[in-house]
Structure formats: C-alpha cells, structure tokens
Design brief:
homodimer, 343 residues, alpha/beta, Rossmann fold, 6-stranded parallel beta sheet, 11 helices, 11 strands
Chain lengths: 343, 343
C-alpha cells in the first residue's frame, strides 16, 4: 500500500513539476545542468571515511578565467567586439572601492572592457539613476553593476530596478529573481555568489538532486538566491534565519550546507553531519591575536574533522563569485551580439 | 560561550534582515502583518490537548466578501467608480469554465464589474496577447486574470509576462514573484491561494514567526509563492518535492504544514506531528464508492486525530482563495484611483 502510494506520489507529482520553458532563440543560463562551456571531469563522491577535501576556489576561478579569456579573444577576432562591464560606485567606502578594484582587475585579465562611474557619497538619487540610464544606453556596455551597499539616502530598490534587465549581471533585478524562483523560467542572470556555489558543487562532483540542503541566511544578494537555485537543482531546501528556533538541529540534517550571515565561527563542529559538504559564504574582517584577517561563518578547525568537502575563507567562494560576474558579462555580450563560439 | 554565540547570532544577523522598504506614496500589500482592512480577534493557540478545530473557509470568505462589498459601495458612492476584473478564458475545459463562472459570481457579490474574454481552443498566441493588451489599456479594468492552464501551443510565460504588472491580480508576473521573494520588497500582488493561506493562519491566531513550516509541492501557482510568503513571515521553511528522499520524516517536523500536489490522501496520519496546523491546498476530483467528490492531499480521517487546526476539502482554502482574488482586484482599483476609505 505504501509502495503504491509512493509510486503514485512520484508519478502524479510530475505534472506539478513539468517544465514549461519556452525555447529561446539564443540559449540562456541553464539551470538544470552545469553550463556548456566547461566540461569538468566528474570527480568521485565523498564519504565519511575520506579525509576532508578543501575546495580550491582560486584554482577553479583561474580555470574559468582562462576559458573566458579564450572566448573573449575569439569574440574580438570574430566580430571585433569586446564584452563591457559598467560599474557604479557611490561614496568612499574602503571595502566597496576594494571590491570594485578587484572586479576591474579580473575584467582586464579576461579582456572585458570595464568602466567605473564614481559618484560622491552625497550625490542625489537622480544622479545615480542618470548614471544607470547612461550605461543602459551605452552599446559597448553589456553588464551593469551597482556596487552595494549604497548610502542610506539612496533607494537601492529604485536604482537596481532601473538597470536594464538584459544588463543586470548581478541578477538582483526582480524579474531575474522571479524567473530564478519559478520552475520552467530562465533568468537572464543568476546572482554571482549563488552561481559560484553551484559551480563549485558541480566541479567537485557533488550530486544536488534529492539532497537535503540547508541555507543559513536569506539575504537578497546571497542566501535567498542560493536557496532558490538549490531548489531549482532539486535539492530539498530549508532556510535557517534569525527567527529559527533550533538552527543547530536543522543544520545538522544538511547534506549540503551553505552559510552566509557574516557571523565568524557561528557554525560549530557539532552543527555538522559527518560527510556534509560545506560552502562557507561568510566573510568578516576580524582583528584578534593573529592580526586582521577574513573569517567565514563556519569554524574551520572543527568543520575539517566533519565535512567531506569544505570551502576555506578566503580562497573558497570569493574568487569563484568574481569569475561568475565575468561569465555573466560575457554571456550578456554574447546575447547582445547573438554571437557564439560556433558563429 | 554558547550563550554569547547565540546573542552574537541574534544581534549580528539583524543586519542581513533589516528592511529596506522604500516608503510608498500609496500603501501596498503588507507582508509583515495581516492587511489593515480586517481586524480579526486573536484566537487562542492550540495545543495537542485540544480537539482538532476545522478551519471554516466558507465563513471567512463570506466575512471578507461582506467587508469588500461595503468598501466597493463606498468607492462607488465616493468616486462613482467600481473595481473591474478582466478574465481571459481560452478553450472549452470544463474545470476552467467552472472556475471562471465561480470567480464571476464572486465579483458580482461584492460589486466588482467583470468581463470575460472567451477565445477558442485553437486561437493563436497573438490573439491572446492582443486580448491581454486590450485589457491592459482598458481603464475600467484594474485586474487581469488569464485562466490557467492554457492550451499547449500557447506560451504561458509569454502571456503572463504581457499582463501589466499593476493589473496582475494573480501575482504570477515575475516582477511580483521576485518582489515577493526578496526581503524588504513589496509585490503589488500576492498569489491568491498563498495569500489565502496566510489569511487563514492569521484569522485562527496561528503564530508563524519562528515556526517550522513545511510546504509539499513547489508549483509556481501555489507551493512556491506560499513557501516564499511563509518565509517573509519569518517561518523556517522547508520545501518537499518529488525528489525529496524522506518526505514523511521532514513533514513530521512541521508546526505548519501546507500541501499542494494534487495527490489524494498523500499525507497520512503518521506524517504529522501532534498539534500541527494543516492547510490542505490539494483539490482532486475522485470517483469512488461515494461517487464523484473533491479530495485534498491530506487524509482527513487520520489528520483529524493529530492536527490542532485543519482545513477541510472542499470548504477550506478554496473559498478564501477566491475572496483573495477579489481583495487583489479591489486593491488594484484603489491604487489606480489613489482612493482609500478615508479619502
């Protein structure tokens, strides 16, 4: 009887989940499998008997950048065009200026042209919207990024909503978030950190389908889109946040754990199921006896004894996130010019 | 140490969850509390010692309709305008025609003007898009509803995306779904069944914040938006779907269980934690020894011995879903005319 019920459940549920994707004239982001331009060799699955493997984000990011550099070079040779990224930076925040510098340098490495629009801390919303509008209209700019956070007097929502959805390489526009959430829809862009998370899982051969995934944090930038993306990849997703009464207990059920709350060492060893795959997206500058250093949400020393795969901080998700921004920008340019490697 | 860590977690996490809502000149849907027009008396919480209470969806729907009827009447007297709903019905599906008839009748009950555009089963996509466009431009139509499912040759995505987001009373446009997903954003409309689910919980005094909610099913129409909305109300949400390996186990952890897969009696008594609140959104026509009748996803006879609150099928979520469509339409008209009860 139970067997019959289970079969019934499997068969009947299919109709709720059947895809209604409209074929696109130009391929968009594929959510159901790793994108096509890389074919990483499948790596073996990890069991609790194996030593923890540290995910090498830097090396993966370098691989991706090398592939992109080749592709950009082909594009330049083929149609005499380069992908372009426009960045809007408001104010003098040190961390924001540093992030923008890193992104600009990464663009240079792969041949993406980048332009940074600097606006003063006290600029008006209209000035920022005008800058967005100018980049929207600039043909050589295929991706637009508004460096967050913005000063408090500016509406992040209004400014992000003003970015042309076809240039929204951060994937924060509600149209892209909505299409990321909905089965059968294809967002034009997936937020970079979330896409980076899935990329790491794919590259290390981690099966997502049917796995219990726990995402700690639900920020619009990282936690929320990552939970949506893991669900699109058919994980069973639970989201833990500040109102969750038993975060340790829920986290302990995870086969795949993603954390992005910015609380150093929040996740201790006893929060982890043996063999769990840990993607630590937290990144907080801490000053202690070791001096100033960046620390993740997961207590590394304790996690290394429990996890099968673990991202270090720094050197884990961070570099891959930047490389995903480059991917999104190159894909935006390819769509704009309707160009593929084969064309 | 653990205490400190917990405090740290609570305090620091706040920054991820702080609201960045831009004040609107006209109030939108409030996600953080029940909407203003009704003030249901808080009812006591239910414990495992109490008998199961059956949620009376019909009576709640009647209450809502009575309130709306008064409001629509005030609007007519005040500005000589009535809210208007435009429905597009393609083909001859019996269930779709019946749903449209029910919606039309409900509109009449509260004084909403409704217009149904009937298109033949074999109509072209352009014809449907033209009908959408005509309703988008019709000033007296404040809400547009495309009755789903559409015939297979039509792109549901293209047609729903064509609905003016300000008239999207079904809440299925990606902009509305994206804004529903994101913290601090306000969708113009919340999908009716999901809004109805929260309305029932509020009316029966069920606390959502911090509760473990499990949503079985992730359809774009019901399961997905309900999971997003429960998360916006600060439940800890897990989504169970066809790839979930241990649906019974996960479901058994729920304080609030929502099911919407259309598999009669999928959820058995042993799937339920004693005292759980069950919102059964399934609705399947079954023919058996009792004749033809509509059945939910939850085995009612077994759930009645376990749940503290339970929706019957029919008579639970269904009528409230229809009344939420009326609410969305009235709110659309109020926004269009910038009219409130006080104006």
């Amino acid at each position: 009887m139970l067997e019959m019920r289970n079969i019934c459940w499997r068969i009947l549920c299919n109709r709720s989940f059947s895809s209604s994707v409209t074929p696109n004239c130009f391929p968009l982001v594929s959510l159901d499998r790793p994108h096509d331009i890389w074919h990483p060799p499948p790596t073996p699955h990890y069991s609790t008997h194996q030593k923890t493997v540290e995910i090498d984000g830097k090396s993966i990011a370098n691989d991706i950048k090398a592939t992109l550099a080749t592709e950009v070079n082909h594009m330049k040779n083929s149609i005499k065009k380069a992908p372009g990224l426009g960045v809007i930076l408001v104010g003098e925040r040190k961390d924001s200026r540093s992030f923008v510098r890193i992104k600009k340098k990464a663009c240079e490495e792969v041949g993406i042209t980048s332009v940074v629009v600097n606006l003063p801390e006290n600029c008006t919303e209209t000035e920022v919207l005008d800058a967005v509008s100018a980049l929207n209209n600039q043909e050589s700019v295929h991706g637009i990024l508004v460096q967050l956070p913005l000063p408090c007097h500016l509406s992040e929502q209004k400014i992000i909503n003003a970015v042309n959805v076809e240039k929204d390489v951060d994937g924060f526009h509600p149209v892209n978030v909505g299409n990321l959430a909905m089965t059968g829809r294809e967002p034009l862009f997936i937020p970079c950190a979330s896409r980076g998370c899935i990329e790491l899982l794919h590259r290390y051969g981690v099966e997502i389908i049917g796995k219990k995934a726990v995402v700690i944090g639900r920020s619009n930038i990282t936690g929320l889109p990552t939970s949506l993306l893991l669900q699109r990849h058919h994980a069973t997703v639970s989201v833990v946040h500040k109102f969750t009464k038993n975060p340790e207990e829920i986290t302990r059920e995870a086969d795949i754990l993603v954390s992005d709350v910015g609380v150093p060492n929040l996740v201790r060893g006893h929060w982890l199921k043996p063999g769990v795959v840990v993607i630590d997206m937290g990144s907080t500058l801490v000053t202690d006896s070791k001096g100033s250093h960046v620390t993740g949400d997961v207590c590394y020393e304790e996690a290394i004894a429990k996890a099968s795969l673990l991202t270090p901080v720094p050197g884990g998700v961070g570099p891959v996130t930047i490389s995903m921004l480059l991917c999104n920008t190159v894909e935006a340019a390819k769509r704009a010019y309707q160009w593929t490697e084969k064309s």
